[in-house]
Amino acid sequence: MSNWAERASAALLPHSIAPTLGVAIREWFYTGNFLDLETNDGVCELCGQQDLRYHFEIENRQTQADLLVGSECIKRFDIGGVDEMGNRLDAATTGKLVDVLP
Fold it and tell me: Beta strands 66-69 and 81-82: pairing type?
């Protein structure tokens, strides 16, 4: 698969209820969990991007499946998150939180 949407579809759809990427993406949210790998050897489980230092956990609300993804994937498809109090955040707020990580 050559383009981003095809790679993302291949990663998300098997773990989603929705049959298309546009609908399936709304089932997913950023849990607020992230990993600092301390070296740039991570791979995004959504798009396959290599050489990542940070992984961000996203979870499907319907299936409870989770994936570790890069920050650009969270921002690119407007995946919202949750704050430390459990409140759902919109994608713009989530993107700002991701941007301020070390």
Answer: unpaired
Query: Residue 17 and residue 12: Cα distance in Å, rounded?
Result: 10
Q: Identify whether the C-beta of residue 74 lies closer than 8 Å to the C-beta of residue 82.
A: no
How far is residue 10's CA from residue 17's CA, in Å, rounded to a whole number?
Answer: 13
Mean pLDDT for back-to-back runs of 10 residues, the chain (102 residues):
82 95 87 87 93 91 94 71 68 65 56
- Residue 33 and residue 71: Cα distance in Å, rounded? 12
The number of angstroms, rounded, from the C-alpha of 57 to the middle of its chain's C-alpha atoms is 6
76/64 Cα distance (integer angstroms): 21
pTM: 0.76
The Cβ of residue 34 has, within 10 Å, a number of other Cβ atoms equal to 17
The residue assigned the tokens 């989603």 is: 16
CA–CA distance, 48 with 29 (Å, rounded to integer): 19
